Model the fold of this input.
Amino acid sequence: MHHRDKNGPRSMALIVILGLVAAFMAAAPTLQAEVANEVCAGCHDEVSEMFMNTSHGIYFSDNAALADASCEKCHGSGVEHANEGDPALVINPSNSDQFGAAEMCLTCHDDHKFDDWQMSSHKGADITCADCHKVHVDASKSSMKSSPQMCYTCHTDVRAAAYMPSHHPIAEGKMKCEDCHNVHGGSTAMTLDDSGRELCLSCHGEKEGPFVYEHAPVSEECLVCHTPHGSVANSMLKQSEPTLCLSCHPMHFHSISYAVDGPFTIRDRSGVSTLDGFKVGMNTKCTQCHSEIHGSDSPSQTMSTGGNTLTR
Done:
């Protein structure tokens, strides 16, 4: 008589499971061991020797959790690269796009300075960290490439403006682009925490006031009248006087109130006008009379304006 094996279904199920496990293990990638730093140093001896003097090397050595950090922390697995010697088989941040290099750096550099990076103009322009920073450099030297020449590589219009007759002292080495701009992103034009008028007043505090008699553009925005990178006009004005002033104010100089040749009276003022009177007005700077153009606490002597003509 034939006896049925009661364990048959179980044995068959076990065989199937073992088969599936074997197939999965055959298909799964083999976990590769890390490449020791000594292996990297065999070819990259110069980089290896200076690494402990770099900012990263010093930081790693001062933090027990990172003391044994390998080259692979930034460059990824070096197994294939070590075996084949092909540079394309290892991550090189200087050759990676913004989705490789920048995102890798931001895994450690994650403080508030980089909060606006994702929406910054630099990221939108595919700028990576390695485009501006040198990693394997002695900590006593700047990790940034030469500024402002680094910025001028892309911002050629700003470079031209910085050499205009009136400019901030960047070319003279007294200022850097980073003094005003947050290159990792900013709320307005990638400026620092202060933006617009507040940024200008962080240096030009004497223009802030408050004043009893104020000039409206000064209270609103410095860039209404000034261009920050440089100008052919004095004081980095957008245009020379009186053209700039006349873009908001009507012409009122008495000698050109009327284009007539002879005496005239307008309201409580009398004067003498000539047919060439406009030349006097156009060759006269408004600030020759309105000298306190940013604001004043002293009333002007004229009665018709209530003292608000910023003349003293």
Q: What stands out?
A: Strands lie at 213-214, 262-266, 269-273, 295-296. The first strand starts at residue 213 and ends at 214. Residues 49-132 form one domain. Residues 217 and 248 are 10 Å apart (CA to CA).
